[in-house]
């Protein structure tokens, strides 16, 4: 295959992918009122338990290796689902943040900006955590990943709490309406 | 064939002029100043090249050097626009800047490497030095542009970051035009002079599509749904609150 053929293929792939990815940006946004229904519940306590290093160590000591590997994979699979749900919720809250940024009230704009920033952080953490969870799922004996996960989880949970707190200025404003 | 060539050369620039007027009337130039500079330069370049082309006697060498010089300046401005788009989308946000800046730099380095390899492979495309210089600049800038725009769209999708529709349109236009130009440059390299005519038409058609995308995106309404404001009911916010509570329940 010549260099020209390679670049023709690359150009075609880039063209198709760019159009596909841009589609979402050019379409009109949805209804904010319907967004709340799309939020998925995330039990952070359960998630914390799933990625807990001490919990993993306990299971490793008390279960036969084969059974431990099987259970560990299931636990990591469940943790991936939790992270996906949190990231999904963050994307919904980011939409609210974007809309709030266009509001005439400066305090709502600021709250929207913060909501957007925190939502982005949460999604960024999610992108970093999911591959680590898959690695842990593939190599249950690898060990040190839970520490990294716990750190990221700590950041994530703080962001979720921040998102929750940020909702209140909007709530206060609405009560005055 | 001659009519198609003239149409594809002139029509996109007339549309580009209309786009510039709409952009300035809506005072959108502050959002992407380098992009506005690029549009102005593109129009000036067209007027200069068209004047040289119509001038009698016609000097092909003058035309080609004007084209190469214009292409060089164009490429620098296009890279500036890519930076502007990256900044608008990702780097201006403190949460993302620290993580994504090095990632984008790494992608740019890889694309530069690819451009260097490709330019080496395409360096002997013609016996004329000026044509070879043009081809190398054209190929390299389009490869970098297409790659960077694609990377920006991938990041935007992964992080669910939304652009204002017209800025997304600018990025899409650049992506489409650069991808088609990359294919066109590769076609010229593969088939040499035989493919010059067809490849040039493809290139001009790509730019035409790009300008139409820019114009359409300017008239598309903003993607962000309006904040409920006066219509907002306390019950709606309570619902949001409940959902958030559910989200962080222990």
Give a written overview of the molecule.
The complex is a heterodimer of chains A (177) and B (250). Chain A has 177 residues and is an all-alpha fold. Helix content of chain A is 84%, strand content 0%. Chain A contains seven helices and no strands. In chain A, helix 2 packs antiparallel against helix 5, helix 5 (65-101) packs antiparallel against helix 6 (106-138) and helix 6 runs antiparallel to helix 7 (145-175). The radius of gyration of chain A is 21 Å and the shape is flat. With 250 residues, chain B is an all-alpha fold. Chain B has one domain: Rhopdopsin 7-helix transmembrane proteins (Up-down Bundle), CATH 1.20.1070. Helices cover 81% and strands 0% of the residues of chain B. The longest helix of chain B is centred in the N-terminal third of the chain and has 32 residues, at 60-91. The interface between A and B is large, with 69 and 69 residues.
Defining key terms:
heterodimer, A: 177 residues, mainly alpha, 7 helices, 0% strand, disordered C terminus, B: 250 residues, Rhopdopsin 7-helix transmembrane proteins, 8 helices, 81% helix
Quick overview of this protein structure:
The complex is a heterodimer of chains A (177) and B (250). Chain A has 177 residues and is mainly alpha-helical.
Distance between the termini of chain B: 70 Å
- Level-2 CATH architecture of chain B: Up-down Bundle
Spans where pLDDT lies below 50 across 5 or more residues of chain B: 230-234
The count of β-strands of chain A is 0
| Largest beta-sheet characterization of chain B | none
Helix share, percent of chain A: over 70%
Number of discrete helical segments of chain A: 7
User: Roughly what is the average pLDDT of chain B, rounded to an integer?
Assistant: 82
Structural class category of chain A: mainly alpha
Shape of chain A: flat
- Name the poorly predicted regions of chain A: 146-150, 166-177
